[in-house]
Amino acid sequence: YDGIKLQLPLELCTGKCFLALYAEWILALQVQAGGKTNLQIPLFIMTSDDTDTPTKKLLEDNAYFGLQRSQVTFLKQEKVPCLANNDAQFCCVEGDPFTLATKPHGNGDVHALLHQSGWLDKLLENDKRWIVFLQDTNALQWRTILSTLAVSLEGNLDANSVCINRLPGEAIGAMVRLIPAAGQPADAQRTLSIEYNQLEPLNCDVADETGHSPFPGNINILLYALSSYKTNLAKTKGLVPEFVNPKYTDDTKTAFRFPTRLETLMEDYSKLLPPTANIGFTCFDRWYAFSPMKNNIKDAAGRGKLSWSAATAEHDFYYSQARMLGHTDSSPPLNYSGIEVVTGPRLVLSPYLGVTNQQLKDNLKGVKFSLECTLVTDVEGDGSIEIHDLEIVGKSALVLRSAGKLVIKKLKVDNQGWQFQPIPSGTEEKCSPEIQMRGYSLVKKDTKVIEVKKGETLVVEE
Hints:
The protein is α/β, with parallel strands linked by helices. The chain has 11 helices and 25 strands.
């Protein structure tokens, strides 16, 4: 796959890409925040030379997925020169002695870009109090935002990191508290995220009685108080600490395997905060908050629960939707091209049905579904779906689309439904990249569709 990650389809039931889902969440949150038609939640997207044009095209080709153009701002990141050796000598593009080789400077650049843009002043003038940083291919992250905001409000936090229970040695950042050594000021302690490999020499990243590391995993969903964020960035003009992470050819650590560069991490904003700042984290179960789509199918194979592949991101998304409705059962795991996925009912629930768990349960009170069924809900604008008594049996598939008011009083669905099928060996090249990266396709044999147009009301009682 050589497109931008925001254009990747999260799941095959709808084919909806990540950016479309994220736009839908923003629109649903706007409705929940008082239902004011003029309320807009600003969205900032950091792009690069490689992603700027295709990101803008994706939005323009899809009418910004319902967002207003005025609420979307692009922050384009520049690249920095590559370093060839331990002496930090610059290197040139191969075959071109007059052009420096460059690489991205890391996601920490987002702070400098926001500081330089002047947008922080505008946000404060418009009574915005919080800013949240999200990741490009983690669909589960949206349901953590309101809870994390509540924790920040209750604790008056300047910085709050969303975390999960981390496994020992897992390759994600670890939340730690650094205690000052003897002779240092007592107020020099810090709560922040460090790279997981920094724990290795300390021999402290070991499992407790639950099987998890004592250090929660930072999944880079960051919530900052906007006022203190602006004040602290002004001190460094938006710059956060840089680091270098070269890959050496051998243990002598004298020659680089390939050129490196200075990098920045957006979570290192916490290192700019004074000792008086309130810093915390909010920890969620993994199934609820974290299943990114990061690795190609070959790199993901054999990594178990930590494959972070297209297949696991899709099936973990279905599982999380079902579990939020109280459905904890699952079928035996399936294996696609060496990637093990959790299986169960395939639920795609629109954010309009509930931005909180309680709202979701209230709107879907009487849903009973089998382990192999499919339920897709699609709500537009002022539309709504309310379910009182719905049973989906066997492998049946039901699609509900509503731009008006749809009430399911009593309905049982029984059809041939949809089914995942592994890609036959030797036919991979005939499939699209979006299918190849999963190792399976979705065959839609039979579907019951109920659709309500804008201004209409439909009550279903069969």
